[in-house]
Design a protein that fits this description.
Helix 16 runs antiparallel to helix 17. The N terminus is likely disordered. A hairpin with a 5-residue loop joins strand 1 and strand 2. The strands form five sheets. Strands 1, 2, 3, 4, 7 and 14 form a six-stranded mixed beta sheet that branches. A three-stranded antiparallel beta sheet has the order 11-8-12. The protein has a two-stranded antiparallel sheet with strand order 5-6. It is globular, with a radius of gyration of 22 Å. The protein has about 425 residues and is of the alpha+beta class. About 35% of the residues lie in helices and about 15% in strands. The protein contains 17 helices and 15 strands.
Length: about 425
Amino acid sequence: MKYRLLAGGSVLVVAAVLSACSASSGSAGDGSDGRTTVDVWLMRDSVSAAFQKEFVKGFEAAHPRIRAKVQIQEWDGIGQKITAALAGNDAPDVIEVGNTQVAQFASSGGLLDLSDSKGELKGEDWLKGLAEPGSYEGRQYGIPYYAANRVVVYRTDLFERAGIDATAIRTREQWIEATTKLNKGDTQGIYLPGQLWYALGGFIWDEGGDFATGSGGKWEGALDTPQALRGMEFYARLQALGRGPKDSDEDDPPQAEVMAKGQVAQILATPGLANTVIENNARLKGKLGFFPIPGKTADTPGAVFTGGSDLVIPAAAGDPDEALTLVKELTGDTWQKKLALAMSYVPNRTTLAPAVAGDPGASAMAAGAANGRATPNTPGWAAVEAENPVKDYMTAVLVGGDAAKEAAKASQDITRAMNAGS
């Protein structure tokens, strides 16, 4: 989900003032000029004003019988706003939603089933971390729009001083070795807060585990499995190679501000956070680099939580055919490449990764996105995040608690939360 990755200064781009149309929603249908208006809700900062203008102009030129009316929405409170729109008769025709939100909206019956369009949309090449959460009960409701994921943001000068070649770090053990070497004196090898649970998820997935497993419509917390416990063990090893707080996440304090103080060699963040670091300390300009989070073996990058957005079409859309035409354009080759370059995003398909090869941060993201994952694909996961026993579990282990016992307790909490509404 995009807002998770953009929180706390992790904005991929500088916020632009985007011109929104009227607050009313719903398709305008055939206007006086004979064109059909497609109402589109896009989220704040998902596109720049320049890209929005270019896309609308290009789309309308290619489809002269369709007018694209884009309205910019705020992430805060968007879930309730979309729910209300889907339940009414004046829903927009296309909505951008966070990738992990799709199941919640699809379960209500409010979204159009787009499964039959997967072939022409080149669904076989979609990023797994966007495509999987875009489906619900075997049907595709969300069309992958763009992705963003965490990479290692590192100080090139500190690496050089320590004699470390970042490009040679391909495995977790090589990463631990390099981070241990960097963690000397006043320098923290890595600043890793104790509750960065998205990063923990990647380590758990690398081990073959998950936060929860589902069967027959029921879900069970899985932090106490051997695989998940190994993921937490690695997190604890890495977290100990710095002075990150054990009882808070990346926003408390904002890790960009911590890195800007000049004593941190690495953080885990989206590449755009490097801009915030430099804004806080201009002396670090030109001294920040990126590489994918390493995996267990050299042949595969570490698994990462894929944040980003999908495009959905409400079942109540007034012009679903024209809406699908717009979705096809915005998620097709031409506009995906333009969007990736304009916003430093990862395109929605693995075959488009070369489009960002010239952007060091985005190319590092694209490499990691090939092994991207998402949280359990069920409406019940929202209840887990609201309560978030994963954070409490991580802190309990890092301050010396018994990992197996704490994992069992957290798994029980996850089980209860996920099945509360069933």
